[in-house]
Write a structure and sequence with these properties.
- InterPro entries: Galactose-bd-like_sf, SASA, SGNH_hydro_sf, SIAE.
- One of its GO terms (molecular function) is hydrolase activity, hydrolyzing O-glycosyl compounds.
- It is a single chain.
- The chain is an alpha+beta fold.
- Among the domains are: about 170 residues, Galactose-binding domain-like (Jelly Rolls); about 100 residues.
- The chain is built from 12 helices and 35 strands.
- Helix 4 crosses helix 12 and helix 10 runs parallel beside helix 11.
- The N terminus is likely disordered.
Length: about 650
């Protein structure tokens, strides 16, 4: 080794030793952060073993020594709201300073895409962003990450709410903070740790899953490395495609798939529009062909016809009767002019070759956006399409947040603990709807897991699933979404919990309803009830009314069922221009439900159907799309969907390891 190389090595070692000596804090701390008022405030980090660390903040100065593992933690005494302050952490060789630190209320915002949904994409979001000048609202975006073991840090930065920063804030969290600040007049800090499409089990620790006999096998499937995950994904996909279509085609075979005479009897079917990962191709990135036959009636004008799609995720090449009519890249709406003479009365074939590079894939528009239209022609194309996989990209095998349980807890939640918080707001459940009965155990388990690790029964507020026609589910055919809402309602048995009911502000055709303003306001109303009512911090203006009218009991009076409610506030009311109460059904001993007439009488609703002479069970809002349900209290909080029976549900047998 020559002298130059030896000197470089010595300098490198000295640099490493110096870096190791630096006092360091996790990224949950930073300039512009909000620290929780009126509670002890843990501050922690790393230094050299035995190194003295001193914290100075808001007239408090405290010191400690790093342990043999280099970790240290200091708890600041409770403080009142205020700021801005500077927090300074000093070690033997280095000093870390965070500026513009406020004291106020800190809430964790977590869940899947409806909590992740950005303000700029919400209803009136662009106008709201322009007016988002709230310097006392702060937001920490936790970057997406997965891990098979608990991590000790996250990536992310605190920002001050302004028109320059608010566009990417969680919309629900933003409106929640806006309302809380109005009520409490203190700074509000939001910690946004979300990931769309995720199960509750990935947000739960391995130790918690191991406490439950039904969920313990889920934790036991965790591999040691992600190399194992990739190998498992490759084998899983190979077996899936072998079962569905006998494997992947050759290039020559794929070239024939636009031919309208092709025999597709062995092709599978999938509802479109929709994410193909939910339609039978989980985790798949690649190329999938979709085909649909269209029957055009005699007499239709077949000139100047347009084939319209909403957006397609990510690229398409579209054929009509074997001829390419258009190709587009990106999530832009498609509108392809059909050459005159290409269409004919009777059978026509539309074929779409979809290339998906990452994430979800498929026809991504709204159902009403997919159609064939002309002068006297309007043929909707939403519904069942035949499909076949042509290629699978390597990215299909990259581990995702749902590949195994606990991964988001490890990477995006555990590193936040024990940062002092007031509570959690949560919007998730869509991804668990297929296992709604299991959610009765999984969801409370996750809440208790978080509370145990924080060492506090902090308020946990969540959003009940909004109305959405996930699969035409109802009382006649069974509804997984209704069963998931029931599991969420049952979770209210845990102390210090609250639920925002959103049956009236969903979108039957969109799993991501754009009205996040009312969601945030209803969560804030529950926060005032659960977290702040009866204290010097604030008072709930609505008492228990913010919970919404909730089923209390039922009695049968002849051919009528009389349902009583709690949380009625100033009284029950119906929101309908004609005064009709909707959403109620009644069944006799044959278990056949019938739409019922319902009338408000005081704090009760009297329900009856002419075809049911002896009522046995009543249901309200029991459907995937339950947007017609219109019972409220006078404070305008919607009633909680319910059923009085305990008849077998369609998700009782579904388990996590069936996925």
């Amino acid at each position: 080794m020559n002298g130059f190389t030896w000197s470089a090595l010595v300098l490198s070692l000295m640099a490493v030793q110096t870096a190791m000596a630096d006092v360091r804090l996790p990224n949950v701390f930073g300039s512009h952060m909000v620290l929780q008022r009126r509670k002890p405030v843990p501050v922690w980090g790393w230094a050299d073993p035995g190194e003295k660390v001193t914290i100075a903040f808001n007239n408090q100065t405290k010191s400690t020594k790093a342990g043999t593992d280099g970790k240290w933690k200091i708890a600041l005494d409770p403080m009142e709201a205020g700021g801005p302050f500077q927090l300074v952490v000093t070690g033997k060789k280095t000093k870390v300073a965070f500026d513009d630190v406020l004291l106020g209320e800190v809430w964790v915002c977590s869940g899947q895409s409806n909590m992740e949904w950005q303000l700029q994409s919400a209803a009136n979001g662009k106008e709201e962003v322009k007016a988002a000048n709230y310097p006392n609202i702060r937001h920490l975006m936790v970057n997406k990450a997965i891990s098979l073991t608990p991590k000790d840090d996250i990536e992310g930065n605190w920002t001050v709410c302004s028109p320059q920063t608010a566009a990417v804030y969680t919309a629900v969290g933003y409106y929640f903070a806006q309302q809380l600040q109005h009520e409490l007049n203190v700074p509000i800090g939001l910690i946004n740790t979300t990931w769309g499409g995720t199960h509750s089990e990935t947000w739960t620790s391995r130790e918690a899953l191991n406490q439950n006999d039904e969920l313990r096998p889920v934790a036991g499937k965790l591999p040691k490395t992600y190399e194992e995950v990739i190998a498992s994904g490759q084998e899983r996909t190979r077996l899936l495609l072998e079962k569905q279509q006998g494997g992947l085609p050759t290039v020559a075979q794929e070239r024939t798939w636009s031919d309208p005479t092709l025999n597709t009897d062995k092709w599978k079917s999938m509802n479109q529009p929709g994410d193909w990962e939910w339609g039978g191709l989980p985790t798949l990135d690649g190329i999938v062909w979709f085909r649909r036959e269209v029957n055009i009636p005699d007499g239709a004008t077949l000139s100047k016809v347009t084939l319209r799609f909403g957006s397609i995720d990510d690229k398409d090449s579209t054929f009509v009767n074997g001829q390419l009519v258009g190709s587009t890249k990106g999530l832009l709406p498609r509108s392809y002019a059909i050459p005159d003479g290409l269409l004919k009365p009777g059978r026509n074939v539309i074929v779409v070759r979809v290339v998906d590079d990452s994430g979800g894939g498929g026809l991504a528009g709204k159902p009403e956006d997919i159609k064939l239209s002309g002068e006297n022609l309007d043929i909707p194309l939403a519904g069942q399409w035949k499909y076949r996989v042509a290629q699978v990209f390597p990215s299909s095998f990259k581990p995702g947040p749902n590949t195994y349980a606990t991964q988001l807890f490890n990477a995006m939640l555990s590193p936040l603990i024990p940062y002092a918080i007031e509570g959690v707001i949560w919007y998730q459940g869509e991804s668990n709807a297929g296992r709604a009965y299991q959610y009765r155990k999984a969801f409370p388990l996750m809440i208790q897991d978080w509370r145990q690790r924080w060492g506090s029964d902090f308020p946990f507020l969540f959003v009940q699933l909004a109305s959405f026609n996930a699969g035409n589910g109802d009382s006649q055919h069974g509804s997984s979404w209704a069963e998931l809402r029931e599991a969420q309602t049952m979770t209210l048995q845990l102390p210090n919990t609250g639920m925002a009911v959103t049956v009236d502000i969903g979108d039957p055709n969109d799993i991501h309803p754009k009205n996040k303003l009312d969601v945030g306001k209803r969560l804030a109303a529950e926060a005032m009830r659960v977290a702040y009512s009866g204290s010097a911090k604030g008072e709930s203006a609505t008492g228990d009314a913010s919970r919404g009218p909730m089923f209390e009991g039922v009695r049968v009076d002849g051919n009528k069922a009389v349902v009583t409610f709690k949380n009625v506030g100033s009284g029950l009311m119906v929101k309908d221009r004609y005064g009709y109460l909707k959403g109620f059904e009644v069944a006799g001993s044959d278990h056949q439900f019938h739409y019922a007439k319902a009338d408000i009488q005081g704090n009760t609703v009297v329900v009856h159907a002419d075809s049911v002479t002896s009522p046995v069970a009543v249901r309200y809002g029991w459907a995937d799309d339950n947007s017609e349900a219109n019972l409220y209290n006078q404070e305008s909080f919607p009633a909680v969907p319910f059923r009085t029976d305990t008849w077998k549900g369609i998700t009782e047998a579904a388990k996590f390891d069936d996925k």
